[in-house]
Amino acid sequence: METLENEESPPPPLDPSLAPVLLFHVEAGDEDDARSLYSIPKKRALQATGFGRRFVADVNWVTPQGWVLTLDPASRAVSLRDPFSSRTVRLPPDRECLLDSQATRCLLSTHRPTDPACVVLVVHRKLPVLYYCRPGGGEDRWFQHGYQSEIIHEDRDISVGVMARLTAVGPGSRFLGHELVDDKVVTLDFSPPAPGPTLTVADAADSPWPVGCSQVRSWKVESCGEVFAVRLCYTALCDKRVSRVQVDRLDWSTNAWVREAAAAGLGANRAFFVSTGQFGVSMAAHEAGLEPNCIYFTEEGDKGLYVYDTQQGTTKLHNLDPNVPDSAWPILLMPALA
After folding, report:
1. Could you tell me which residue ranges the KIB1-4 beta-propeller domain spans (predicted)?
2. What is the pLDDT of residue 219?
3. According to the model, what pLDDT value does residue 233 have?
């Protein structure tokens, strides 16, 4: 398979100094200016002129590694692009029309798609099936793999939901998920010598829910070789606003989720970002213009950006672009991790 980087690439559509940014889409016909950007480090709104049109011209999946998987609906050509640089990696074309951005989620097993061990994984959100390719493996095709959902849980919807929220754990070609109902750690491994993925499930010890919490939304975040669970907690009286944020870390030796003390923070110079409907990601705080030991998060149907300080236990709300409706739902874009 031919893999290209930086060959006849167009100028970067976004200024890297603006990253990370939130992209808003406002329903206003087909006008390109119906899209706007908010630069988190610059703390200012920007018009998405030009970029917005290119971003939606093809079908796109934003990955936790920053790369955007792009599908041309006409030619079925597939590539990975960094919206903040000219880097482009060509992937096998989708000849069998497997990929559907409305029903799937994409992630990479490593930060660089040209790594020999990298797997580009597209997981179906509704069916027990996944698609994958190996950009550095010399195979010019996408593979389809159906898995036995009952291995994870007897309820297929629960199993598919777990797979749709997988997190890459490196180095290598592994992905990890967490089945919350029966407390299971799910591992999807593409490592040799097996020709395809191997799915394993193991018991896990979960940390207790906070007192008074009736609902939890959880995101897995891989950071510096560790896997964290960021949990947004809600009460029965107000299920629209987060009442508490807690962070657990997976102890690999015991498969137990351990509550992180506030004093421990998120690691040296780390900030987490979790976005409803997208993923959780760890960033070098100072390099990204973020506050260290803080969790940035967005909520469904809410344009606000929330910043939780893990050491102070406080949350700040940033009301972003006054021209964007309160119900707008942002998409996080960031440079492809190197």
Report:
1. 38-309
2. 87
3. 86
The residue whose two tokens read 């060959």 is: 7
Q: Which residues pair with 272 in a beta bridge?
A: 282, 295
Domain that holds residue 197: 58-203
Domain count, the chain: 2
Q: Are residues 139 and 262 in the same domain?
A: no
* C-alpha closest to that of 176 among 158, 189, 157: 189
CA distance 310 to 231: 12
Whether residue 198 sits in one domain with residue 65: yes
Strand pairing of 78-81 and 68-71? Answer: antiparallel
Averaged pLDDT, groups of 10, the chain, 338 residues long: 48 78 69 69 76 58 90 90 87 89 87 88 94 84 94 95 91 87 92 87 84 80 90 75 86 87 80 85 90 90 89 88 81 80
Q: Comparing C-alpha atoms, which of 303, 300, 298 is closest to residue 37?
A: 303
121 burial class (0-12, 13-18, 19+ CB within 10 angstroms)? buried
**Residue 193, preceding bond cis, omega within 30 degrees?**
yes
User: Pairing between strand 129-133 and 78-81?
Assistant: unpaired
Alpha helices in the chain (DSSP H): 51-57, 156-164, 285-288
Cis peptide before 10 (omega within 30 of 0): no
Co-location of 195 and 246 in the same domain: no
State the number of CA atoms in the 13 A half-sphere of 287 facing the CB. Answer: 11
User: How far is CA 280 from its chain centroid?
Assistant: 5
Distance CA 15, CA 260 (A): 36
User: Measuring CA to CA, which residue among 75, 40, 41, 38 is closest to residue 59?
Assistant: 75
Predicted local distance difference test score (pLDDT) of residue 28: 55
16 neighbors 42 (Cβ within 8 angstroms) = no
The percent of the chain in helix, strand and coil, each rounded to the nearest 5, is 10, 40, 50
The two three-digit tokens of residue 106, written as one number: 């994409």
* pLDDT value of position 8: 45
